[in-house]
Amino acid sequence: MLSCPLCANDNTVAYHHDKRRDYHQCATCELVFVPPSQRLDPAQEKAVYDRHKNSPDDPGYRRFLGRLFEPLQKRLAPGACGLDFGAGPGPTLSVMFEEVGHPMALYDPFYAPDTSVFERDYDFITATEVVEHLFAPGDELARLLALIKPGGFLAIMTKRVQGPEAFARWHYILDPTHVCFFSEETFHWWAKQQALVVVFPHADVVIMQKT
């Protein structure tokens, strides 16, 4: 029996199958996930990320990140300090926040593996196109939430599950590094467990505030 990597519940069922992988869904939090045996190893995973060509000099990439940056920036006090979790090989969101006066720390297990960033508190934490890659999202999100000051924000960008039929033809599941898939219901469930206020400013953005 498979346990849910978000809530650890054992009540999971088959959700989808294709020629590459299997996908299961948790009956409690509704997370859809790939079994551990079908994940890439770290070297394979990094090889995929190394092909990413993101850069703060790319206006299109900035516009893409703007879907999270703009609604979050409006909620921040001047000088609020943040952490960009899972910044990737071409950190850009952190540059955008620093340009408007928000000091930023970076963490990425492959490209910025400085764990000292987890020894301080933050006014906000961002994770853009990150949670779908996490093997243990329950543990990782709990760690991030513990670093956020009261009243602070956790802002996540990830495309959301829209149902079994849409899932079967969804381009998002073709990326072999994508192993966890959140729906709006999943975020509502997790936010309720953590006593967070949750809003969805865009189809792939969720902002949760710590009360």
In short:
The chain contains six helices and ten strands; from the N terminus they run βββααβαββαβαβαββ. By secondary structure, the chain is α/β, with parallel strands linked by helices.
Write the layout of secondary structure elements.
Elements: E1 12-17, E2 22-26, E3 32-33, H1 42-49, H2 59-73, E4 82-85, H3 93-99, E5 104-107, E6 122-128, H4 137-147, E7 148-157, H5 164-168, E8 180-181, H6 184-193, E9 196-202, E10 205-210
Parallel strand pairs: 4-5, 4-6, 6-7
Antiparallel strand pairs: 1-2, 2-3, 3-8, 7-10, 9-10
Account of the 3D structure:
By secondary structure, the protein is α/β, with parallel strands linked by helices. It has a domain at 40-159 and 184-210: Rossmann fold, CATH 3.40.50. It is built from six helices and ten strands; from the N terminus they run E-E-E-H-H-E-H-E-E-H-E-H-E-H-E-E. The protein has helices spanning 42-49, 59-73, 93-99, 137-147, 164-168, 184-193; strands spanning 12-17, 22-26, 32-33, 82-85, 104-107, 122-128, 148-157, 180-181, 196-202, 205-210. The strands form two sheets. It has a six-stranded mixed beta sheet with strand order 5-4-6-7-10-9, sandwiched between helices. Strand 9 and strand 10 (205-210) form a beta hairpin. The chain starts with 11 loop residues before the first strand and ends with a strand.
